[in-house]
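Two records follow; treat each independently.
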Amino acid sequence: MPNMPSWLQRYGTLPRCVLWFAVGQFLINLINTAQFLLLNLFLRSHHLDDPAIAALTSQRFVGTFFLAIPAGLWLRGRCLRWPLVIGAVLFPLTALASLEAVQHGAMGAASWCFLLMGFAGLILNVGSMPMVLRMVSAEKSSEALSLMFATWAAASICGGLLSSVLQGMGQIDLFGWHVVLDEYATLLLLTLAGFGAPFLYARMPDPPPDPSVSKKWLHLHREDMPVLLRSLLPSIVIATGAGLSIQFLNLFFNTVHQVSSSQYSTYGTISNVLVLLTGLMVPEIRRRYGWRGAIIGVQSIAVLLLMIMGLTELWNHLLWSLPLAVFCFIVRQPLMSMAGPAISELTMSYVGERNRELVSACNGAIWSGAWWLAARVFQVLRAADFPYWAVFLTTAVLYFMGTLFYLKIIRAMDRRDDGTHPHRHESPPAPEVV
């Protein structure tokens, strides 16, 4: 039997608590996957039109946008295990309550449930990366963060396959009960799986924060302000670009290339398999090619593929346009996702431990606000008959700008590593926790 490659063996050396955390995050992401695939269809089956669906589901983004920064300020400098456990309890609980509220026609209650679900997801998002970095040494932070990112791809694959199987079965007789396997049943099953996450989170240790980190809500060190602004600027630009096009890729393929929803789901599943495999290779790529290769290199190729995919609209009457667009779609997402763990590690190292929770919270607010705003801009552009290729090229320009901003951070980190940076915020390596 051939030996596993060394880059894959390193994941086996991670502390057991990180593996438990990854499994818990996988269960939480099953809920996110189910909602991404089926929630809109479930709401439409209850006679909600598109504006009503958008208004209801956007409540999650409202909660994230307005509460992200207060949550980050409150969690900064505190132990994180119990906030994560509480978030892992509230998230599936509010997701389940929202399903039942819609099922029984209580739309007012459903709106509040979606708002609370956004807040619970916010707690999980803000605390997850700082918690992981507290549980591992600096030498294993790349593998730990890559494993966390891989849970989304794994949940997307498993959730998509399970949804397809259940939807294909249609109905089943179980212990004398006739169960219809519609959108509601599938959402319910995957939501119930999420209740296993808090039990796994409760088994984790609770490493103390850096004692030098202030617990005061609005206390910021003066020298941290330019560091924080510099670390968040790429997120603002890239999130806006992504919001313009990435959330509407299914519309692009359906409108331009007449791709059905089932075909698009198949392409997405193939892409997610590649996301999972390539995401695990990120630490090895970073060690071999540095920050520039792991972030600038792969992200630049992904942006180029996005441009080519959009430009296929100009030649959509030719036979090769659809295969080329599908190839770009399948390969672009893994490349763009590969940059995610490296960007998170770079940003968390750059801002230092005392600002990690705050930066995580700000990033959550930025992505929620940018995607909401970009969706409205997309609506205006399409109403004015802007072609998809023009929207995609706008996204590409914003992506390239964000990549250049990351290059500035990489150069600052290089100077810091050389000992020439005037402000060094990084704390000593965290002790290993099993």
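The next record belongs to a different protein.
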Amino acid sequence: MLRIILIAFFSAYFSCKTFAQNKFHVTINLDRGINPVNVRYQYYDGQRLVFLPDTFENEHTAIITGSYYSPKVSFNITYTDSLKLVYQNDFFIDKKPATITFLHKPNDGNRFNYTYINNATPIYDTLQNKSWARLYKFLTGSVMTAENKAFDAFMLNNRSFAANDSLRLVFNKFYKSRMRHVMSFLRLYPKDYFSYWYFINQVDQSDGVLRADTAFLIEQLNYVRNIFPHEFNTSLEGQALIQKLKTRIRPLMTLNMPAPRFTLKTINAQPVDIAKLKGKHILLDFWATWCPPCMAQIPILKKVKTSVSADKLQIIGVSADNDPKALNRVVGENDMNWLHIFDSNRDISELYQIEVFPSLVLIDREGKIIYRSAGQINDVDELIKKLNSLN
């Protein structure tokens, strides 16, 4: 039986369908020698990376549809074979119905091979994608090759560079130089959407190795604004890129700073305006059902809730899940009796500069941040003591 997966989008602020530029439709055929259970699908829709739920089971044919907010949607398929080796491939797809048939053959490039393709472009194929062919030629040219050899030698001789500040600076210098080389090449083809897509997915450092290098992020922000065309930068995709860079550039959030405001609805359609919750302490729990440490933290939050007076503390779960049904199920099954917000686009997470799940942020009655944590909380008793000591 053919399974059809329809991807629905939800947002705290609006229905994404209102702003969707196009719909894509791709039929995936898997050779009988491929185990469908070990195939994973995801795509970049111009705003975020969307992971498809694992509901294809043993079907060798699947139809995948969804919305996208850019000239093309980039689609990724990954297969783990019986030897636990991972193979993958990436494709550009537009509004024309696409079909791709896959046949697995082990290869040194770990490429998940296809035997038939229609209305889809393999992104990293130098024969099918001329834009990638140009960039690949540049990346394997003499200038980059010499730099890569020097970088490889550095990595070979300094495997523990991350623990040494001086060596980490050398690593960052190598990495920044590479990013600048690529940027210098992409500026030759600013109107080619591949250049914009590649910058977002491979060059942008707002969430990358150089995210703490404010000067370089400012350089990248100016580059985006000055090099790429207006229609790219004013699209939802472009606005998201620019906002990410601007958010990272601003001073890091510290204790005693005013908590950023947001207004949205809970998973039960209950309106929440964080500014109107002044008078209570607010504990924001940034989490997701697919995050094991987050799930392990649930008993801790329950202990906090039962140990602190309800008129003193309001807990709000901010979930990064992609599936609202799964979120509702987990919340119900675990008796998580506090407010929950569906933050699949990571709007609130970015607003609060959250880099790891789970993370807790405690806001006092005056709306100031007085506690932040990253990772599973081990000092729960100290947190409860702190809460109870507050007026």
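Discussion point: Residues 3-124 form a domain with the Immunoglobulin-like fold (CATH 2.60.40). How would you locate this feature using only the token line?
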